[in-house]
Amino acid sequence: MKRHLIALRGKSSIGKSSSLHLLYKHLLAHPDTKPLHFEALGRKLDFIAILSIEGHAVGIFNRADAPAIVKELLDRLVEAKCQVIVCAARTKGEVEKVLKSQGRKYKLVELQKKACAGKSQAVSNSAVSHSIAAMVCAALDA
Q: How do beta strands 3-10 and 84-90 pair?
């Protein structure tokens, strides 16, 4: 199975962190999911988590503003042998290089989170989290 790194990209304050919190809750609702690790990272919505879904490790984190932090969290999830990693990552700065540095180990899939136009932020975040959950399940089935 090819490992996947799914990066939810976008500007500040458009719902990346909220979408990944919803994703975590959606994945926990799967009957064959077991939480292995959850750690708040000091800021209101920032966290790192590892789930086991049908015996496959899935990592999620959403501290996406500093390249050094993104690298550290990615390294932790790679070390934990996560087959799928989902992260939030701002579109600005050096984070792009950190994500692409995993290219030999992980297939990078980037999704753009955009500001809402005509619908509420909550609806947008829910839709994004459902889409990413489907991508995680598809990656685990591949």
A: parallel
